[in-house]
Structures are given as structure tokens and as C-alpha cells.
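Notes, p. 3: input format for complexes.
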Amino acid sequence: MTGAIFLRRNPLIAQTQEQTVSTGDTPFVPIEKIVSLCKRRGFVYPNSEIYGGVSGIYDFGPLGVELRNNIRRFWWWSMVQTNDNIVGIEGSIITHPRVWEASGHVENFVDRLVDCKNCKRRFRYDHLPEENVRQNKCPVCGGELTEPRKFNLMMETYIGMLEGERMKTYLRGEASQNIYLDYDNVLKSSRMAIPFGICQIGKAFRNEVTPGNFLFRQREFEQWDLQFFVHPSQMQQWFDYWKERRFEWYKSIINHKDRLRFRAHGPDELAHYAKQAFDIEYQTVLGWQEWEGIHWRQDWDLSRHSDYSGQDLSYTDPETKERYIPWIVETSGGVDRTFLNLLLDAYEEEPPSGKGKEGRTVLRLNPMFAPVKVAVLPLQKNKEELVTTAKELHNKLRRLMVSQYDDVANIGRRYRRQDEIGTPFCVTIDFTTLADQTVTVRDRDSMSQIRLHMNEVPAYLLERVR
Ligand code: ATP
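Output follows (466 residues plus adenosine-5'-triphosphate):
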């Protein structure tokens, strides 16, 4: 959820975005390059494409689904599996409609929009440059703008079959509400005591009026949340702790460390209960953009759900017997923005290294995220012994990690194909293999090659891709 209860601030104007150039040594990657790679190599497809598509909704292809799973798995491992005081849940997309009244979404989850009377383009009011707001001018054609109108972002749906008995509810606008709903059940059914946290990864739905920039702003997307419950006197300490930890987490998964920063929310953005809030931002061709929000939610959520449901959600300290509504530190980020940012961070077009040499496109993804961990390549496909040996090794490796067998085209081409999808290692079976059981292991980033005995390959790879 945005820091101020529903104030949505974002300097990006999709319609007028110009491509910027990095101030560092590597230029920013245009989004179009990522869109094209994703479609061509099976990471992401437009949803319902044969019917003309639906804007802001995407499907993930064979490589995309592997990358997403790896991203989710790493978040879950570092947030849930490796912390004794954190557990996970998986809540449903549809909840009782009162949830969204209590949370304030029905009333306040709005974007303000203006239309240009001349060119008919539509803009989010909070995305307009200040000058255009002041002059009431369209940023594209200079035409006059209409008064801002409010649009609620919640997606409606109905439960039940019969007219009159159908109940209107919503596809969740943010995943985190399930955590507040299940908080008491988790407390009673697990051995958690404050301070403790609940994590969840799940889909959220927003009728974004200006979806765009590929996966950056979608109508159906996936969020990850930690809601960490604390005693009010420990709020600042835990807020600082999670703020730093989440920043370090993002830093650890990218190559361009200098493109990550905090942005403190200004007083106009802060919710009435929030002492402070920070966005972790990443810089791409779209400028500095939110990747994850760190929010001071105080006792707002549990108090509201206590009031609206009539259930007492206060906590009694087992030792002091003190009774209070726990305060909450929230860290809320997006699987899809992580997917997009990792690709933007990893994509590189290398020029030819010399005369007669070919350049290459390479995805320098951290090996743990790479959709394919290893490609097994027989040097020639018309030599039966090479093919048989390569297939045997591939069958052995694919039980341990995602392995791809490829014998189509010359070896250089095959290396390029794997570089483009971020495969960290290629193993080549050549004529020496038949004599001494050694294979060539090629590293994606340095393109250096070493020879290993075939039996050593699984352990060598596992150590580097897990
Ligand atoms: P923004 O200001 O960019 O609209 P937000 O502040 O509304 O984002 P939150 O409600 O805090 O976002 O959601 C938490 C995270 O969910 C965001 O940091 C982002 O990674 C992701 N997210 C939010 N909206 C979208 C969307 N429409 N498409 C993809 N990811 C999203």
C-alpha cells in the first residue's frame, strides 16, 4: 500500500516518457529491448494476444515462469525460511467485502485523472509535471485539461449465482490485507510471540488507468509483503532494522549497485498514522522508480479490523500481561517489478571483441535467478557417440537443476543463444571427452573455459548456481 493511505505519487508519465541516458559507464537499457527479448525467447507474452490483448495484463512463458519461481523462492528463503520469528501464509484473492471498507480502499483507493480537451489523451493528475498542473496544460499538445476526476482502482466481482443473493466483493487491491485477517489465527495456531512477522506472496489487482511500461505498472500483478508486529516502544528499532535489511537484500541481487537508493516520503505523502516511510528505488530508463515500500503502519490496520469486525485483535504479553494493539512495520514489494528490474539490470549488448568476431547479447543474471542453469552441447550432432554422451550428462544434471540439451547450429551460435537467456554455464562434449571423459565448462560472463572430468560437473555447477 502507498505510504500515505492512498496518495499515489509517481514522477513517471508513461505517455511522455523520454529515454534517458545513464550517467554511469553503462547506458540504461530501453524497455523495448527487454519486451522484444521476453517475447522472442519465451519470458513474457501479452495476455490474450490472439484477441488483440488486454492492456496491463501479461502471461509468463517457459523461461519467465522459471525466473519468477527463482525470484519468489529466494525471497521466501531469505524472509521466512531463515528467520525464526517469521512465518508464511497464502491468503485468497477474494475476501469478505467489509475487509475493503475497513481498509479504506472502497472509499479512498483512487487515482485522479485529467483529459486533454484537444488531443483526448488521459493523464494521472499526480504524474503531471508541476508546470502543466499550474498552467492546466496538456504535456503532449499544450491543450486545455479537464478538471481532475476520481477513479476507484478496486476490481469488482460477485459471489453467488442467484440475482438478489449475489454479493458484490473485490479482487484484492493489495495482498497484505490477508495477513491482518489471519494474524489472530497465526498467533493462536503457531508459537509466535511479539515481535514476529507474517509473510505472503500473492496476486493483487488494480484498475490502473494508465498501465504501462511493460511489467512496471500492470492491472494484475504479484506482491510480496512482510507485516512485522511489534510492541509500540520497539517500533523505531524494528522499522530501522527492516529498512536496512530490505535495502541490502535488493543490493545483493543487482549488478548496478549505484542505481539503488532510498526516497523518504514527504509530509504531503505520509498517512496520518505514519511517522515516516521510505521507498527503495531503482534507476532505469524510466528514471528513479519505487521497487519496494517500507511503511510505518502503527496500529492502524489491526485497530480498523477490530472496529469493523467486532473481534478484539489486541495482544496480551505472556509475561507482563500488558494488553495492546500491536504496531506494524510493513515491507511491500513486487515480484513483477523485481522481474523487470533484474532483466534491465542484467541485459547487456557487447560489441565484437575484434575483427571478424561477433558481438553478443548477454543477460548477466545472478546464477540463482537464471531460468536455465546449464546447457549441455554435443560439439556435432551427427556424431552418435557425442550425442549419446551429452544426453546422458543432461539427464543426470536435469534431476538437480534446469538443464537444456541443444544440438542445433554451430557451437558459437549455441553459446550466444544461451548467453541471451542468461544461462551461466555451457558444457560441451567434444572428441577429447570420448577419450578421457573430460568436458569443457564455459562461463557466461567471462567466456573462459575449463576442462573438468564429467563426474565433477554436477558438484561444480551446484556450488555455483544454488
Ligand atoms: P506506485 O506508487 O508505483 O503506484 P504503490 O505505492 O501504489 O506503487 P504499493 O501499493 O506500495 O505500491 O505496492 C507495493 C509494491 O507492489 C510496489 O512497490 C510495487 O513493487 C508493486 N506494485 C504496485 N503497483 C503495481 C502495479 N500496478 N504493477 C506492478 N507492480 C506493482
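Residues 1-2, 8, 10, 174, 206, 208, 217-218, 221, 223, 290-293, 332-334, 336-337 surround adenosine-5'-triphosphate (CB under 6 Å).
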